[in-house]
């Protein structure tokens, strides 16, 4: 089992829309490191959904439903997408300020590589975030 965090601007693609649709092709990623992370995702891996820019908070948990495949929105087959399905909302969104102020999360990729849209989480980081959100 691996753990991940994906970021989306809620104005572009929100958690509410994701839940309403029931699944999403996580496409449009055009950063090599994020692409490499997508390639490592496997069905059943758990994914935290982060609203970036305006909200700056983790709002829900999803899981990988289909492993990496060529991104249908790209002209080049080297770009990847995965399919995600929602699992549950966070009772309490976990804000960026909460993450910054929690010493257990001081090395989380979200703080070290803030522009990365798909990032791995350590199991311990995932557990802390899950506890904060529920």
Automatic annotation (TrEMBL):
Cited InterPro entries: 5hmC_binding (IPR052181), EVE_domain (IPR002740), PUA-like_sf (IPR015947), THYN1-like_EVE (IPR047197)
Domain EVE: 2-131
CDD domains, per database record: EVE
Residues of the signal peptide: none
Pfam assignment, any one: EVE
SUPFAM superfamilies: PUA domain-like
UniProt name for this protein: Predicted RNA-binding protein, contains PUA-like domain
Organism encoding this protein: Pontibacter lucknowensis
């Amino acid at each position: 089992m691996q753990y991940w965090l994906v970021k989306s601007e809620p104005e572009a693609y929100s958690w509410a829309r994701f839940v309403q649709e029931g699944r999403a092709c996580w496409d449009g990623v055009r950063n090599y490191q994020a692409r490499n992370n997508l390639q490592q995702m496997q069905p059943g891996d758990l994914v935290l959904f982060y609203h970036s820019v305006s909200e700056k908070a983790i709002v829900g948990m999803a899981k990988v439903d289909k492993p990496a495949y060529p991104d249908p929105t790209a002209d080049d087959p080297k770009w990847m997408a995965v399919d995600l399905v929602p699992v549950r909302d966070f009772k309490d969104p976990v804000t960026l300020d909460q993450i910054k102020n929690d010493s257990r999360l001081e090395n989380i990729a979200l703080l070290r590589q803030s522009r990365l849209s798909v990032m791995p989480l350590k199991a311990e980081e995932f557990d802390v975030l899950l506890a904060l959100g529920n």
